């Protein structure tokens, strides 16, 4: 199995976060007025507090996608599943 296949397998098992938690994360990103590196830290802290890792590059990308207007809890869940790494 290649390393990229293994990486995808780790992401398969990301838990379903509550819509409240997901929207709280989004609101924190929107209201904090931070730059992309600080936003990445917010996403990384959210995931690490729940037992997942994430690369800072992927966390920055996820944060920017979570902040788009009209972002739903389902979209946030999909983004977190895309970047979260099981630890």
Describe the fold and architecture.
The protein is mostly helical and 87 residues long. The chain contains five helices and two strands. The protein has helices at residues 3-11, 19-32, 36-48, 56-66, 73-83, and strands at 52-53, 85-86. A two-stranded antiparallel ribbon has the order 1-2. It is globular and about 30 Å long. The chain starts with a helix and ends with a strand. The model is unreliable at 1-8 (pLDDT under 50).
The largest sheet has its strands arranged as 1-2
Radius of gyration: 12 Å
Shape, per Cα inertia axes: globular
Number of strands: 2
Our measurement of the CA-to-CA distance between the termini, rounded to an integer number of angstroms, reads 19 Å
Note the run of SSEs as H and E. HHHEHHE
Domain count: the total is 1
Structural class: mainly alpha
Amount of helix: 55-70%
| Average pLDDT | 87
Low-confidence stretches: 1-8
Beta-strand percentage? under 5%
Number of helices: 5
Main sheet: strands, sense, barrel? 2 strands, antiparallel
Concise account of the structure shown:
The chain has helices spanning 3-11, 19-32, 36-48, 56-66, 73-83; strands spanning 52-53, 85-86. It is mostly helical and 87 residues long.
Which terms would index this structure?
single chain; 87 residues; mainly alpha; two-stranded antiparallel sheet
């Amino acid at each position: 199995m290649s390393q990229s296949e293994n990486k995808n397998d780790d992401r398969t098992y990301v838990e379903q976060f509550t819509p409240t938690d997901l929207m709280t994360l989004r609101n924190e990103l929107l209201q904090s007025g931070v730059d992309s590196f600080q936003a990445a830290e917010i996403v990384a802290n959210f995931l690490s507090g729940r037992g997942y890792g994430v690369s800072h590059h992927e966390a920055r990308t996820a944060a920017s996608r979570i902040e788009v207007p009209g972002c739903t809890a389902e979209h946030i869940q999909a983004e977190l599943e895309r970047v979260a790494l099981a630890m």
